């Protein structure tokens, strides 16, 4: 039985381009982001992959990425479940702020702590630990059972919600996951064993 799980971070968004903390705000993809999503679809098509169900967040940039991928695969009508559990980390008071301006206002060291510590949230926002605490229960309840049941699953989401899944799947420590960068529009193809552990992994980052 094939147990296929593909994770893909959305393509570049307008706020990525402008170097803004995005979080739960809802900008769409840039032209580059659209191209990245189309390329992701082509890479999956080259591997002759298709899917039985898709999961995505409640945010446009992830949904648009997924739609462009599925278009490349000829699967535009695929059943798709959308949930806030897969949303990007909430950056709280930093949301909408330019990252360089945030460093000027709060100091380089403080902004680095908010961005790169595992369990220190920015004011009014979420740490990566808090993000994982909403992503992982959803994964175990809704996504993993589908994969273990033999369905081929694709998840289009965000840098930090996907970091939570990568940390779980690959058994990484908080220190290791903080160093893990997920490129925009770059699928990671996991094949799982019957206990949910990894059988093989293929990172399609250029």
From TrEMBL:
* Keyword Magnesium set for record: no
Q: What does this protein do?
A: Catalyzes the interconversion of 2-phosphoglycerate and 3-phosphoglycerate.
A GO molecular-function annotation: phosphoglycerate mutase activity
Residues binding substrate, per UniProt: 9-16, 22-23, 61, 88-91, 99, 115-116, 159-160
Question: What positions does UniProt annotate as the active site of this protein?
Answer: 10, 88
Subunit:
Homodimer.
NCBIfam families the record matches: pgm_1 (TIGR01258), PRK01295.1 (NF002339)
Q: In which pathway does it act?
A: Carbohydrate degradation; glycolysis; pyruvate from D-glyceraldehyde 3-phosphate: step 3/5
User: What is the name attached to this protein's record?
Assistant: 2,3-bisphosphoglycerate-dependent phosphoglycerate mutase
Q: Where is this site: Transition state stabilizer?
A: 158
SUPFAM superfamilies tied to this protein:
Phosphoglycerate mutase-like
Q: Which Pfam families match?
A: His_Phos_1
Reaction(s) catalysed (UniProt annotation): (2R)-2-phosphoglycerate = (2R)-3-phosphoglycerate
Biological source species: Stappia albiluteola
